[in-house]
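Sample entry (67 residues):
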Amino acid sequence: MIPQTFEQWKSCIINDCKINLTEEFARQRLAVYWDEGNPETCKFVQLYGEQHLQNIIQWLEMALKSD
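Predicted structure, serialized as tokens:
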């Protein structure tokens, strides 16, 4: 299931993927996703679409603010 809300995404990252949602993790992912020419970002958009990429960026930014 592709998360549709911040809470769904956060639960997926923490509980399903077993990833600690740390400031370092969020900053590393944002560095990749802000770079439209990054091959990983291009692949993400190809698989999930531009709107989901924007959602992920927004959620990572929200995670940084909640720390």
